[in-house]
Amino acid sequence: MTRFSIRLLALLFGLIYQTSWAQTKLDSLLPVRGFCIAAPQPKQLDTFLKFINEELAPRQVNTLILRIDFNYQFDSHPELRDSVALSKRDVKKLVKACQKNNIRLIPQINLLGHQSWASTTHNLLRVYPEFDETPHVKMPEKYVWPNPDGLYCKSYCPLHPGVHKVVFELVDEICDVFEADAFHAGMDEVFYIGDDKCPRCSGRDKAELFAGEVGEIRNHLAQKNRKLWIWGDRLLDGKTTGIGMWEASMNNTHRAIDLIPTDVMICDWHYERPDQTAVYFATKGLSVITCPWRKPAFAVTQTQDMVKFRKSVTPQMKERLQGMMQTIWSGAGQFLDEFYGVKTNPDSGENTQTNCFKALYGEINRLGEAN
Question: What are the residue boundaries of the Glycoside hydrolase family 20 catalytic domain, all occurrences included (predicted)?
Answer without folding.
Answer: 84-305
